[in-house]
Specification:
This protein is of the alpha+beta class. Helices cover 11% and strands 27% of the residues.
Length: 197
């Protein structure tokens, strides 16, 4: 099974902890993501899956979901994160991010993959669910990728929230967001359930 981090080279959200992406940059990111997904040489979708693919669907760009968050380092024990298969990748909680969506205070745990950490020590993984899950967005939750900042503030851009590859193919093995990372508010940004699902 291929690991979800093969997508990381596409994730512009990792490029900066403070610079807000423009609508044009996010549109280009989405177009690149679609091209990568439909390229059978990438190894994700086979030719039949590409032919049956209905397309990607997104919320409109919304700068109100580009929020500044406080990050608190609070490392936890190593643990095996459940996935959609029997694969159990090892993660460690790095800490928490606290932010506001409208008037609601929100907190998400952020994790480091111990295998991917060898390649990028600053990468953080944020699997989450929110009030749109199973209604407007994929039932298995969505992901964000962040970069550890120098200080205790970083930009969290939910316009970059993306689906695990399990949303498109059974050939993927995707981490399942821990229950603690369920937001009660709707995140009306980022990727929706794929079309024709």
């Amino acid at each position: 099974m291929k690991h979800f981090t093969s997508l990381l080279f596409l994730l512009l959200a990792c490029s900066s902890v403070y610079a807000q992406a423009t609508e044009e940059e996010i549109e280009k990111h989405r177009a690149d993501h679609l091209a990568y997904l439909l390229d059978t040489t990438s190894g994700w979708l086979n030719q039949q899956e590409v032919e049956d693919f209905g397309g990607l669907d997104y919320f409109d760009f919304d700068s109100t979901y580009q929020v500044m968050a406080k990050i608190t380092k609070d490392k936890g024990r190593k643990f095996k994160m459940p996935t959609s298969t029997d694969r159990l990748p090892v993660y460690r909680r790095y800490g928490f991010i606290d932010f506001k969506i409208g008037d609601s205070l929100c907190r998400l745990e952020v994790y480091q993959s111990l295998s991917y950490r060898k390649k990028d020590k600053r990468h953080l993984f944020v699997p989450f669910r929110d009030a749109t899950t199973r209604e407007l967005t994929y039932g298995g939750g969505r992901y964000l990728d962040l970069t550890i900042p120098e200080g205790d503030q970083l930009l969290v851009d939910f316009n970059f929230a993306y689906n695990p590859y399990c949303a498109y193919t059974y050939n993927a093995s995707c981490p399942i967001p821990p229950e603690v990372n369920t937001l009660s508010v709707p995140i009306l940004a980022g990727e929706k359930t794929p079309l024709d699902h």
